[in-house]
């Protein structure tokens, strides 16, 4: 399936705040149109047709033939872009292949990735003379309802659309799966001097051919500065994974999302952040060993926060890679090792040695167990290990990495090294043994 | 698909050596017929029809309705079993369901599991009037060729069969996928007073309806004491996994297969062996800590050998379970921890402490890395990590568990604890870092 992106407009309302055309306005490190291309690529779309108008050459210069994104891009120019977006959409007619279904998306709309994925998956379920429209019926949470195109829906079909519609129960998200029927409706509308996309959709709606797909996630039309800010907020929130640890959710993410917002504007890669997090852990270890537990503890927690940033940047800028996952997993283990070693060294240098050795050894053995049990469970059963369902009450044990580094920070601040090591050993082994016991019933 | 097992014969030649009917003769902990039922269950077969004759009630008492194996067993009795195995096979006629394909297997034949799996997978490729026969054309390695039924093959079809055939190029393994055509051929042969299965197969061979499937693994017809001994050997050899470590292949398996042979006759479970191996590691740790490195080292190696026995018994007696895999993975990590801790304790008690601490910590961090990298790689890519292909020259590094415990044994015998810990730390981290580096190109 191909995607058609409308990028012909002028984008007046954002012009005072940003230079250049609106599709190229950068939002958290990617231009608006780039984000849509990369997000659709994640949905399996590799061929794009971009309809340009006002800023044709700037957009072509910026995106090229798509090879830098691993996709193909074709450009169609609409000299009459000022007439309306229906005329721009109709430009696709000369490139349309008989019988194909295509995605039609506005270059300045931002969608959470899961919204796009769910929408694209619906393509096989529409008939060849229908149109699928993404719609949002959660009217209370829709951003800037006044500016939205309203839709009157009956069951899963749109019957009338319009910006000033009074009787409506859902709104148009500006995301379509079109067929030849849409292009015919566009021609018909244009021949009647009605130049917007909504005019053409209304023709099909009258024939009960506009099927609705109700979205579940967030989306926004980036039109002015407040909506730009809101888009930033939505995207950052969407980066928090559902299976976050407690410390991570309550504390780390609040800071890491700010760092990610800052880093996103630069060309810093996720793997570079992973390595930076490791270096900070190493520094933490040195401070612990030199009996400066306060700095050691704080640096450990900083490293834990940065441990979230790599994944956030990867998801935000579509830079996720399997290797990044492995690199992170291994460096985290080494970081843990250095910190514990630093603590044990400090303890050893001033107290009874064999207990320090035991605590150090037990902690180092316990720490990789959390991941090891999860991955082994996954490898053996083919099912991911879900701590929320499988750990029972022990899911609140701070034995995952966010919890462990938080304990280390507290231990450093309070200068309680022996107690910290003993606590770490206890929680990690308790979790490991409990997982082993619980897994009996689950495998 | 259902399986029909012929278990009607008398088994005269094994009678002097074993009491009871031949299908119930125990071989490495399972009776011959049990082994075939369990092996076919692994191939996805859940419904069995057993044709009894000479020892009808003994066999039924032993196997019951199959519920203890998680399968369904139906029995058909052939009072005329003495006439020949064709008459026994024809007994299935009254139970046959129009159009079905079925596996026909002799209760006293032993097949490597992979041979059965590959054969069963061929079932969809034969026509409804054909017969599929497992055949072995590796004549030099066939056991007791004189006793085998010879087959003259042209391409993939048998044209003539017989025990005394002179012009032959392959032999009959006694394993079939039959259709209604086989039952008709059996009736026809019997009406001509030709009572063996080979008689009926010859009728179909004359019509070019006996397709051949050439086996790649080992199999044997257990007829007398030498073939019984040979079957034991074949089965034990088939337990060695292809991706064995070097120490394991060269040293451990030679001992572990003997222990497995011994344990197979008892009701010891794989998980019990896993736990025994762990206890021996714990004892090794105590000896190291008490500065008896010789015993410590030898016990560590014994634990490494037993670490292979659990899996061998599981495969041999079809007791493999996901939980067993996880239990083994976790207990191995704990065993490693105890041994290293014992060694470090001994070192600490008589020498410079901070180096001992560093070596202990580095070893404990390095040891789980081997498994952790493999499992994480698998979880991320969906592909298993194959050390032979991915580790390059470092695949000879003794960083896997068999190699590590071998180093520990040597270190104990030579009383070189510090050097052993430093070596362990070096090889494990070298492997981990090399894997991380190599994985870049593979993920």
- Count of all domains of chain A: 2
Q: What integer value in Å does the Rg of chain A equal?
A: 27 Å
- The CATH topology of the largest domain in chain A is Spore Coat Polysaccharide Biosynthesis Protein SpsA, Chain A
Q: Name the quaternary structure.
A: homodimer
Q: Give the largest interface pair and sizes.
A: A-B, 45 and 45 residues
Word description of this protein:
The structure is a homodimer of 443-residue chains. Chain A has 443 residues and is an alpha/beta fold. Chain A has 2 domains: 2-234, Spore Coat Polysaccharide Biosynthesis Protein SpsA, Chain A (Alpha-Beta Complex), CATH 3.90.550; 240-442, Four Helix Bundle (Hemerythrin (Met), subunit A). Helix content of chain A is 52%, strand content 14%. In chain A, the strands form 3 sheets. In chain A, strands 1, 4, 5, 6, 8, 9, 10, 11 and 12 form a 9-stranded mixed β-sheet that branches. A two-stranded antiparallel ribbon of chain A has the order 2-3. A two-stranded antiparallel ribbon of chain A has the order 7-13. In chain A, helix 9 runs parallel beside helix 11 and helix 12 runs parallel beside helix 16. The longest helix of chain A is centred in the C-terminal third of the chain and has 27 residues, at 322-348. The two termini of chain A are 40 Å apart. Chain A binds chain B through residues 321-323, 325-327, 329-330, 333-334, 336-337, 340-341, 344-345, 348-349, 353-354, 356-358, 360-362, 364-365, 368-369, 371-373, 375-381, 432, 436, 439-440, 443, and chain B through 321-323, 325-327, 329-330, 333-334, 336-337, 340-341, 344-345, 348-349, 353-354, 356-358, 360-362, 364-365, 368-369, 371-373, 375-381, 432, 436, 439-440, 443.
């Amino acid at each position: 399936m191909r995607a058609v992106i409308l990028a012909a407009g002028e984008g007046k309302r954002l012009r005072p705040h940003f230079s250049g055309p609106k599709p190229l306005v950068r939002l958290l490190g990617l231009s608006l149109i780039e984000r849509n291309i990369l997000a659709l690529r994640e949905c399996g779309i590799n061929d794009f047709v971009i309809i340009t108008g006002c800023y044709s050459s700037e957009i072509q210069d910026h995106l090229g033939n798509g090879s830098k994104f691993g996709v193909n891009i074709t450009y169609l120019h609409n000299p009459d872009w000022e007439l309306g977006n229906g005329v721009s959409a109709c430009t696709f007619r000369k490139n349309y292949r008989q019988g194909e279904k295509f995605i039609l998306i506005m270059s300045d709309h931002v969608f959470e990735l899961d919204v796009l994925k769910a929408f694209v998956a619906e393509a096989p379920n529409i008939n060849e003379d229908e149109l699928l429209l993404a719609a949002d019926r959660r009217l209370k949470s829709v951003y800037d309802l006044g500016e939205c195109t309203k839709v009157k829906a009956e069951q899963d079909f749109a019957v009338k659309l319009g910006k000033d519609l009074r009787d409506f129960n859902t709104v148009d998200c500006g995301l379509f799966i079109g067929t030849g029927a849409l292009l015919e409706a566009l021609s018909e509308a244009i021949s009647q001097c009605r130049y917007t996309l909504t005019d053409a959709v209304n023709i099909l709606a009258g024939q009960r051919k506009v099927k609705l797909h109700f979205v579940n996630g967030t989306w926004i039309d980036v039109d002015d500065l407040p909506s730009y800010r809101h888009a930033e907020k939505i995207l950052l929130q969407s980066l928090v994974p559902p299976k976050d640890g407690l410390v991570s959710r309550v504390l780390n993410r609040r800071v890491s999302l700010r760092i990610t917002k800052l880093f996103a504007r630069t060309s810093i890669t996720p793997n570079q952040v992973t390595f930076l997090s490791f270096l900070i852990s190493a520094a933490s270890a040195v401070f612990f060993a030199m009996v400066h537990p306060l700095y050691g503890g704080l640096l450990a927690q900083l490293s834990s926060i940065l441990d979230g940033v790599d994944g956030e940047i990867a998801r935000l800028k579509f830079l996720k890679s399997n290797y990044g996952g492995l690199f992170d997993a291994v460096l985290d283990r080494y970081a843990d090792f250095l910190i514990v070693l630093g603590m044990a060294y400090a303890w050893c240098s001033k107290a009874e040695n064999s207990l320090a050795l035991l605590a150090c050894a037990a902690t180092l053995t316990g720490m990789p167990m959390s991941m090891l049990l999860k991955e082994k469970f996954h490898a053996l059963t083919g099912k991911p290990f879900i701590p929320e369902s499988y750990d029972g009450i022990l899911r609140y044990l701070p034995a995952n990495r966010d919890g462990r580094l938080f304990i280390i920070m507290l231990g450093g601040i309070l200068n309680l090294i022996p107690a910290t090591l003993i606590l770490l050993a206890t929680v990690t082994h308790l979790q490991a043994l409990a997982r082993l016991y619980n897994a009996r019933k689950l495998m």
